[in-house]
Recover the amino acids of this structure.
């Protein structure tokens, strides 16, 4: 009995020990073993983001760049704290990403970038930085107003509060589009005014959108834009009126049809009216006209000129005239350079030619003057860029 018990014990121990010896050496550490895990190598791709994480007072242009080494960028997203994305583009070789435009000033941005190595393994990096807060800023005063309905000659005109020495950057930050689509180009008058227009007058019914993304644009050294705004306006019916200074008439054309011919008085021989295409930029039912403000000294100061519509910055108007005799209109040129229409004092009579034209005109309508013994108006004297050829405008 003792010998049998001992033999049984040895058999049990051999079975336990043999099982461990046979399975432990081969299966215990590999994929087919008892619970071991296979290690996966890390991606060799390295993502670098400039500026560094936590950076402050970062420049709004030229500072942000994402690169990948030993791999290619697959995803780059940049957004401000409101979730507004920054548009950018990954290079064709996948080695770098840069924004397509400038960043806003005084804004915090978050960057998330992912790159893949040749084995498809991903490496990611996340950073946060803040752009500078400028001490000196500028904005653009624009016309027409948001939501306006204007005539076919109305350009988009923007006057900046500071002289611009980096016009390319400023112009890139302004986008003007139209529906139906038409080519639109900008033209600088000096260093503080930028106008946009198509080659020909706008088509009636066109919807125009202006996006001002000036916030963060360095318009001149150390001076940054602080404006981000979208403006829309509509082109109304087509009205183009032609003044013949020699015949002393004005023909009003509406949507291709002459709807009225009015007798006028233009500039006298010593104070002739400019020739050229002019755009109505302001309307006043009654206004004061003082010759001293436009270089005519004390020759006139009329405190209640009726139905006045501005055609130039220098003081050319189409306006009512109650002080000349009715026989003057259509027969003599007696003004100081304006186009006069018969009217009554106080602008209260809607039956006069001046009232008729005023009531049927809107900002942006075109008035063309021809056959005057004067030069052509300069394109920057009012909203009158139509007096430049398309090739000159785009140059």
């Amino acid at each position: 009995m003792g010998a049998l018990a001992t033999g049984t014990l040895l058999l049990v121990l051999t079975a336990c020990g043999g099982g461990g010896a046979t399975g432990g050496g081969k299966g215990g550490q590999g994929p087919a073993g008892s619970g071991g895990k296979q290690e996966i190598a890390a991606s060799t791709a390295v993502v670098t983001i400039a500026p560094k994480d936590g950076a402050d007072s970062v420049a709004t242009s030229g500072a942000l760049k994402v690169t990948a080494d030993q791999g290619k960028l697959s995803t780059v997203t940049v957004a401000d704290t409101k979730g507004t994305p920054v548009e950018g583009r990954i290079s064709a070789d996948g080695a770098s990403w840069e924004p397509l435009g400038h960043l806003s000033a005084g804004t915090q941005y978050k960057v998330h970038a992912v790159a893949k190595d040749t084995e498809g393994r991903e490496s990611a990096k996340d950073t946060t930085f803040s752009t500078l807060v400028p001490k000196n800023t500028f904005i653009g005063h624009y016309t027409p107003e948001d939501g306006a309905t204007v005539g076919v000659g109305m350009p988009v005109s923007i006057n900046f509060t500071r002289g611009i020495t980096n016009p390319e950057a400023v112009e890139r930050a302004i986008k003007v589009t139209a529906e139906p689509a038409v080519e639109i180009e900008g033209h600088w008058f000096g260093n503080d005014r930028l106008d946009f227009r198509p080659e020909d007058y706008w088509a009636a019914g066109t919807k125009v959108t202006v996006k001002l993304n000036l916030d963060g644009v360095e318009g001149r050294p150390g001076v940054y834009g602080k404006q981000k705004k979208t403006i829309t306006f509509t082109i109304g019916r087509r009205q183009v009126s032609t003044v013949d200074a020699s015949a002393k008439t004005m023909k009003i054309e509406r949507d291709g049809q002459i709807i009225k011919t009015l007798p006028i008085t233009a500039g006298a021989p010593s104070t002739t009216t400019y020739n050229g295409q002019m755009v109505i930029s302001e309307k006043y039912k009654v206004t004061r006209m003082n010759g001293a403000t436009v270089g005519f000294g004390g020759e006139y100061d009329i405190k209640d000129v009726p139905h006045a519509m501005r055609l130039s910055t220098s003081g050319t108007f189409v306006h009512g005239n109650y002080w000349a005799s009715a026989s003057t209109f259509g027969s003599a040129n007696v003004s100081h350079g304006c186009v006069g229409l018969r009217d009554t004092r106080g602008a209260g009579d809607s039956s006069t030619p001046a009232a008729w034209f005023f009531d049927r005109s809107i900002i942006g309508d075109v008035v063309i003057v021809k056959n005057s013994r004067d030069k052509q108006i300069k394109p920057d004297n009012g909203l009158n860029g139509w007096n430049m050829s398309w090739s000159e405008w785009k140059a």
In short: Helices lie at 2-24, 167-172, 353-359, 390-394. Residues 1-34 have pLDDT under 50 and may be disordered.
